[in-house]
UniProtKB/TrEMBL annotation:
Native source species: Mycolicibacterium wolinskyi
Domain Calcineurin-like phosphoesterase, first and last residues per copy: 1-162
GO molecular function, one term: exonuclease activity
Family annotation (Pfam families): Metallophos (PF00149)
UniProt protein name: Nuclease SbcCD subunit D
Record's keyword terms, sorted: Exonuclease, Hydrolase, Nuclease
InterPro entries hit by this protein: Calcineurin-like_PHP, DNA_Repair-Maintenance_Comp, Metallo-depent_PP-like, Mre11_N, UCP033093_metalloPase
Lineage top rank: taxon: Bacteria
Family named by the database record: Belongs to the SbcD family.
């Protein structure tokens, strides 16, 4: 028996840093990743798909988002089992009980809206642990494992949330306790545990039967999400009394959120940064966050600004990571001697240079003014 394990689709997600039309393309890519599971299911001969929580970004979605999401699920073709998670719990405002969802839900989509056992077919069950609020007071997975027998039925657990061996907040009542999970696996009551919540692909524990699939499309920068963009293909040998499990992964994500840390202290460093940015391919689906440190002349800072301005138009987004960016700008000796101006204008430039080199409150304004002056002079020369 083979099925697909995925999670954290978070359909309807927005990212504030995306450039204008990049947000609609990103939203479409998340839906396309969902619809594309149909081709993957056909190619791998998967019997069904489990989505281990956070199908939607939240419960208050625009009707268009709900309809488009359901149409993407329809395209998968095989049965799709949706688990409500912390982003879309089964509370009073649940998207899963809305009139629109109920009316348009495709026949191949099943909401795991009840804790416990759901029959897939004779000899195969899903054991679901849905969220009913954003703050559960118990280990939801542990609750559904407690009384399961080891009776020869193949069981797949579908849960959502942090696991105690990975989460630093070990006193959180909602944490999934790994010990009871591994005990249920060891006694043959369940055979695979499909988890959601972590957006990177990850094996949990040593059994090889407990996995986070991660999100099929990236949601955060690579220093936070190290391995997103995958769907897990899970094989369980139903002819083997031990139900041997084999897990492989397929990469389906196409977007990247990249963090680059660079020191920029001269024009050569700025040129190297330009080359690094130029070498990143698929720019329309790449988001870059820059952490820059160093000390630059006004001329070199103007070159850096021009570089960033250029690539901000090419990438889906290019931003400075403010908390990790610190660039000192100081006019170099003689940097403004060859502007070809005199009289009052030259005196004003000298005053700006002096202010820019000082600790005065308006030093940053003076540096910005000098940078603008250099750009205007360059444009005039070009003309």
């Amino acid at each position: 028996m083979r099925f697909l394990h995925t999670a954290d689709w978070q359909l309807g997600m927005t990212r504030h840093f995306l450039n204008g039309e990049a947000q609609p393309r990103y939203s479409a890519a998340r839906r396309d990743a969902v619809a594309g599971l149909g081709e993957l299911a056909r190619r791998t001969d998967a019997e069904f798909v489990v989505v281990a929580g956070d199908v939607f970004e939240h419960n208050q979605l625009a009707p268009r988002e709900v309809s488009q999401s359901l149409e993407a699920m329809r395209a998968i073709g095989v049965p799709v089992y949706l688990l409500p998670g912390n982003h879309d719990p089964l509370d009073a405002s649940s998207v899963y009980t809305s009139a629109l969802f109920v009316a348009e839900c495709p026949d191949n989509v099943v909401v795991l809206d009840r804790a416990g056992v759901h029959d897939v077919r004779p000899g195969l069950q899903i054991v679901a642990a849905p969220w009913r609020s954003k703050a559960p007071t118990t280990d939801l997975v542990g609750d559904v494992l407690a009384d399961l027998p080891a009776d020869g039925v193949t069981r797949v657990v579908v849960g959502h949330g942090g696991v105690d061996i990975l989460d630093p907040g070990k006193d959180k009542p909602s944490l999934i306790r790994l010990a009871p999970v591994e005990a249920a696996l060891a006694r043959g009551a369940v055979h695979y545990v499909a988890l959601g919540d972590k957006h990177s692909r990850m094996k949990v524990g040593s059994s090889g039967r407990v996995w986070y699939s991660g999100s099929p499309e990236v949601t955060n920068y690579d220093d936070i999400e190290s391995d997103p963009g995958h769907v897990l293909v899970v094989d369980i040998d139903e002819a083997d009394p031990r139900r041997e499990v084999r897990v492989s992964s397929e990469r389906v994500g196409r977007w990247r959120f990249v963090t680059l840390r660079r020191s920029v202290d001269n024009d050569r460093d700025v040129a190297d940064l330009d080359i690094n940015l130029d070498l990143l391919d698929d720019k329309e689906r790449t988001v870059v966050r820059l952490a820059l440190t160093g000390s630059l002349t006004v001329t070199d800072k103007a070159a850096l600004d021009a570089c960033l301005d250029k690539y901000s138009r090419l990438f889906a987004a290019l931003t400075l990571w403010e908390r990790h960016t610190e660039i000192a700008v100081l006019p170099a000796d003689g940097e403004f001697d060859d502007l070809g101006i005199g009289g009052f204008a030259a005196a004003a430039v000298d005053e700006l240079v002096a202010t820019a080199r000082s600790d005065a409150d308006d030093a940053d304004d003076a540096r910005a003014a000098l940078g603008l002056l250099l750009r205007l002079v360059d444009r005039g020369s070009a003309a």
